[in-house]
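User: I'm curious whether this sequence folds into something compact or stays loose and floppy. Could you predict its structure so I can see for myself?
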Amino acid sequence: MEKGPAKNRRNRNIVMMSRIRLARNLSGEKFPNSANERELERIYNRCIKALLKAGKFKGGEVFNMGDLSDFNREMLLENRRVSKELLSEGGAFRGVVVSKDLSAAAMINEEDHLRIQVFAKGNNLSGAWRSINLIDDALEKDLEYAFCQEFGYQTACPTNAGTGMRASLMMHLPALVMAGTMEKVVRGVNQLGMVVRGANGEGSDSYSSIFQLSNQQTLGISESEIIGRITKYGKKISEFETNARIKLSQDNPLALADKFSRARAILENCKLISTAEAMTNLSALRMAADMGFFNLPDALKKIDSLMLDIQPSHLQIRFGFFDAAPSERDSLRASYLNSEVRNLGEMKIPA
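Assistant: Here's the prediction. I'll summarize afterward.
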């Protein structure tokens, strides 16, 4: 194996995605957890009307939780456009509006009246902020937010008060996991007023070595300060991950080669494979691709696509098999991965 990837050419895809979420509530209306059906309906209709007029959401699609099948709800969750909380609440007057280009989504009557989200590729919180700020300004032309000078935006949970903003980076950190230093990173960012969680937020697993770095503090700090802090420490954690990869390739190249080879062998030859096991092994191949050990130029892009394609609902849509039992999905997933991973081309690892 090579002595280590050049910093200026590789390991550029540690930050997979940026997201900014704004929590907003309507002035004079009860929070969703205490509103009755009539009040929820009024809030829902007001928010839908305003959203469909707001720039990026013009021509967007409305998904009403009360009208959706369990299958379609899961699709929205796998695409990260809704939260588990919105799915569990359900009901006719809860939903989400998704922009035409899929880069923005606004949940209605989740914990707050509005949870607006914008997504951007890579470490681009500044771009996500510009986009969501335009949406927020457009909505304020039709909606009066609950706001006070002392505490800022009023939210159902006090931990979101102030800016009502959560900025997060989705990061792929397999080398830090392998080196056993992720716990140290988590403790360190907690002391700095930030938090690291699994890929799907609080309480979620990180078997794929994908984590979210986000702010904890929303009160007494500006939006630009939050973005600056998350961006700064996202870069710092990326450096830690890069250095851990270099150290692994220098100190224990055979173990790294073994990890990559085993992952590929499993994905190419398995007959049954769960989502969790597939994600664990795709994570190893993603690391190999980002370190430059695949000959195929777009191997990393293909692996990122596979990470979504193998999720239960996406898999069933691909095969047109909408009522598949878990064991049937595991068989479909294995068959799909067998062929797709073989098409990734050669890996440059030692014999």
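Summary: The CA atoms of residues 60 and 100 lie 5 Å apart. The longest helix spans residues 223-251.
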